[in-house]
Amino acid sequence: METGPPRLDFKLSCHDDETVGDELEQILTDTEAPYFKRIRSASWVELKLLLHLAAPAVIDYLLNNVVSMSTQIFCGHLGNLELAAVSLGNNGIQVFAYGLMLGMGSAVETLCGQAYGANRHEMLGIYLQRSAVLLMATGIPLMMIYIFSKPILILLGEPVNIASAAAVFVFGLIPQIFAYAANFPIQKFLQAQSIIAPSAYISLGALVVHVLLTWLAVFKWNWGLLGAGLVLSLSWWIIVVAQFVYILMSKKCRNTWKGFSVEAFSGLWSFFKLSAASAVMLCLETWYFQILVLIAGLLENAEVALDSLSVCMTINVWVFMISVGFNAAASVRVSNELGAGHPKSASFSVLVVTSCSFIISVIAAIIVLIFRDSISYIFTGGEVVAKAASDLSPFLAVTIILNGVQPVLSGVAVGCGWQAFVAYVNVGCYYLIGVPLGVLLGFTFDLGAKGIWSGMLGGTVLQTLILLWVTWRTDWNKEVEVAKNRLSSWDDRRQPLLQN
Question: Which PANTHER family does this entry report, sorted A to Z (predicted)?
Answer without folding.
Answer: MULTIDRUG RESISTANCE PROTEIN (PTHR11206)
